[in-house]
Amino acid sequence: MPHWIDACAPGDIDAEDLIRFDHAGATHAIYHGPDGRFYATDGLCSHEHVHLADGLVMEFLIECPKHNGQFDYRTGEAKRAPVCVNLRTYPVRVEAGRVLVELP
Ligand code: FES
Q1: Are the beta carbons of 83 and 63 closer than 8 angstroms?
Q2: What distance lies between CA 48 and its chain's CA centroid?
Q3: DSSP string across 60-75
Q4: Residue 21 β-bridge partners
Q5: pTM (2 d.p.)
Q6: Residue 70 Cα, ligand 1 centroid: separation in angstroms?
Q7: What is the rounded (10 degree) CA torsion for 64, 37, 5, 50?
Q8: Paired strand residues for 17
Q9: What is the predicted pLDDT for the residue at 2?
Q10: What is the 3-state composition of the chain as percent helix, strand, coil, each rounded to the nearest 5?
Q11: pLDDT for residue 1
Q12: Cα–Cα distance between 5 and 44 in angstroms, integer?
């Protein structure tokens, strides 16, 4: 059953940046998009399981630090080789000054 998890404060993530967020033995990435909204995906690249939090955000893309594969972090879609498996995404909302992520 999914739960809304308190991940961070909005100010903890600069615009067009991301943070790593670990919960219940799983690693996630939370992004602050150029549209002012927050997004969440799996935290490890689907290619070789590198932490995406060490990568680079460009508008709505996250570029993996290892082989420069890219994903659209709004949808999880793999956008540039060598990544070919999409990331899982998770609903995010901001409530009472906190960023909440719905995790399974
Ligand atoms: S580990 Fe991410 S692109 Fe290879």
Answers
A1: no
A2: 16
A3: TEEE-TTT--EEETTT
A4: 28
A5: 0.96
A6: 9
A7: 0
A8: 32
A9: 76
A10: 5, 50, 45
A11: 73
A12: 19
Token pair for 23: 């919960």
- Reading phi first (left if > 0) and then psi (alpha if -120 to 50, else beta), residue 73 is in alpha
C-alpha 50 to ligand 1 mean position (Å)? 6
Ligand 1 binding pocket includes 69 (Cβ within 6 Å): yes
pLDDT by residue for the chain (104 residues), tens digit each? 779 999 999 999 999 999 999 999 999 999 999 999 999 999 999 999 999 999 999 999 999 999 999 999 999 999 999 999 999 999 999 999 999 999 98
The confidence score (pLDDT) of residue 39 equals 98
**Topology of the domain comprising 3-103:** Rieske Iron-sulfur Protein (2.102.10)
Q: Decide: 67 in ligand 1 pocket, CB within 6 A.
A: yes
Protein residue whose Cα sits closest to atom 1 of ligand 1: 48
Structural element, H or E, at residue 57: strand 56-58
Omega before residue 65 within 30° of 0, cis: no
